[in-house]
Write a sequence for this structure.
């Protein structure tokens, strides 16, 4: 029996861990899964709401660390997790993605000599200005089992000198969650609630510090949105970081002056899935949404200069536009004028990654 300590903290961790936890629960003779929530995200709309929607059991332990600077947040998670891991003595610690909770948990585990499995290993943007890039590099450097979503991730790890024995290409576990919930999302009433017609609006999210923590850059992106919403309604699900910055920079009046821009709180998974899967195109700087749009063949304009998920561009429907308003408008208008990016579904983005992940942990 393997005691597996599964770690979640921020919103995207939940979509990645839900299928892994479900698969472990199907193997009660082999796994005793224990769920720890660090409390990095804590609003109902950023965390609590997803547990019931995605069938994730209530966390066994919530560290309640909350927000803070990188050092404060990472430090608080590490201090609290060391106590938890020392008491529970898990056989494996499972972390996912690239948030502060991921890196903090991996560091604590490795120093306690507990093996670490990293779900979504090997992604690299090659942009060390991104906090997530540091989290990815550190987590992969200490993890014992590197579970990759795409072949480029394997190559990145090999190039960094990682022992190939530690690498296992399992495919994209976020797409497991997508497949499981596609038909359920049809019951969502979001399109009626927002008075939207299928294919006749854009969905948008924005939360990268590089876009929202700089007033000039954020105002520039909003000026592009202002022009876009004159041609097609835009639904903007506003992340709490972004909401705070918009208020701090005095940009909310600019937003409210846009007649066809619809602002929403962060949406539940099913509402958001129904929203973007029926949209004309998606504007985002999210990592996960670049993948989900590729899996569904929805055009995606990514408001970043680079991506750690290049397969969404080389094989999928994703295009990088950066944060220059002129480039954003050009890319969006090209799609509205009928130039739709063609894409195919990447290898092993097939809805069965969690089975391969849990098999790999069992074997290891
Ligand atoms: C974090 C991750 C990022 C991920 C994103 C997903 C890191 C370094 N960043 O960014 O990789 O893409 O989550 O959404 O781990 N806040 C609330 N309520 C909440 C959570 C946050 O109001 O429930 C506000 C706080 O003011 C907080 C700010 O949002 O300071 C930022 O939260 P934080 O978790 O530090 O980073 P994110 O920007 O959410
Ligand atoms: N998401 C959601 N509601 C929203 C916006 C996003 O459920 O209002 C989902 C999205 O479909 C994806 C995940 O949240 O599954 C991505 O998380 P986020 O963009 O916060 O983080 P990132 O992937 O950039 O780390």
């Amino acid at each position: 029996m393997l005691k597996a300590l599964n770690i979640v903290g921020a919103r995207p961790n939940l979509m990645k861990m839900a299928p892994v936890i479900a698969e472990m629960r199907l193997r009660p003779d082999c796994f005793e899964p224990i769920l720890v929530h660090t409390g990095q995200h804590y609003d109902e709309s950023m965390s609590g709401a997803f547990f019931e929607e995605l069938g994730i059991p209530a966390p066994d332990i919530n560290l309640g660390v909350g927000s803070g600077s990188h050092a404060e947040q990472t430090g608080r998670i590490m201090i609290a997790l060391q106590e938890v891991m020392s008491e529970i003595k898990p056989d494996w610690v499972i972390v996912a993605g690239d948030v502060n909770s991921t890196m903090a948990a991996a560091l604590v585990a490795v120093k306690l000599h507990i093996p670490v499995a990293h779900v979504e290993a090997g992604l690299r943007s090659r942009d060390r200005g991104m906090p997530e890039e540091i989290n990815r590099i550190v987590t992969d450097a200490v993890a014992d089992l590197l579970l990759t979503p795409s072949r480029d991730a394997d190559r990145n790890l090999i190039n960094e000198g990682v022992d190939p024995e530690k690498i296992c290409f399992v495919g994209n576990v976020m797409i497991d969650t997508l497949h499981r919930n596609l038909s359920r999302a049809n019951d969502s009433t979001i399109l009626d609630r927002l008075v939207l017609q299928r294919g006749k609006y854009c969905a948008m999210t924005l939360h990268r510090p590089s876009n929202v923590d700089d007033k000039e850059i954020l105002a520039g992106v909003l000026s592009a949105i202002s022009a876009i919403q004159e041609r097609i309604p835009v639904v903007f699900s506003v992340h709490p970081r972004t909401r705070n910055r918009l208020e701090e920079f005095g940009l909310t009046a600019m937003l409210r002056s846009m007649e066809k821009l619809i602002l929403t709180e962060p949406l539940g998974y099913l509402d958001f899935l129904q929203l973007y899967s029926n949209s004309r195109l998606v504007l985002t700087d999210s990592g996960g949404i670049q993948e989900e749009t590729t899996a569904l063949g929805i055009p995606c304009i990514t408001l970043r200069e680079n991506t750690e998920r290049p397969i969404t561009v080389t094989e999928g429907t994703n295009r990088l536009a950066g944060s220059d308003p002129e480039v954003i408008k050009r890319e969006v208008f090209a799609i509205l004028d009928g130039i739709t990016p063609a894409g195919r579904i990447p290898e092993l983005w097939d809805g069965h990654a969690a089975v391969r992940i849990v098999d790999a942990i069992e074997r290891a």
The chain has two domains: 2-171+349-363, 184-336.
